[in-house]
Amino acid sequence: MTQIDIRRQHGHSIKKAKAAVNETAAAFAEKFDIKSKWSGNTLKFNRPGVEGAIRITENEIHVTAELGFLLGMLKPAIEREIERHLDAHFR
């Protein structure tokens, strides 16, 4: 399994950070057919070939994911897409 581990500092309230993560999750759901569900301040997501979470703390967004073999070959593109969304909401 190929792993993604991205951390980003933020200065938003947890409520505002969750709203931004929801927008990102909606975009990824539409584009990649990813299902997600909140558990406290962690958004867990999955689809065949990927499983991960976005954890929100008072000052950090932490994205982790495990990619299956086929999606593992697309890791750089997937990381760029995640970074692009994080930049849009947390810079």
Description:
The relative contact order is 0.25. The protein is α+β, with helices and mostly antiparallel strands and 91 residues long. Helix 1 (14-32) packs antiparallel against helix 3. Strands 1-5-4-3-2 form a five-stranded antiparallel sheet. It has three helices and five strands. Strand 3 and strand 4 form a beta hairpin. Helix content is 43%, strand content 37%.
On the 0 to 100 scale, the average pLDDT is 93
* Secondary-structure element pattern, one letter each: EHEEEEHH
**Quick one: biggest sheet?**
5 strands, antiparallel
β-sheet strand percentage: 35-45%
Structural class: alpha+beta
Summed up, what is this model?
The protein is an alpha+beta fold. About 45% of the residues lie in helices and about 35% in strands. The chain has a five-stranded antiparallel sheet with strand order 1-5-4-3-2.
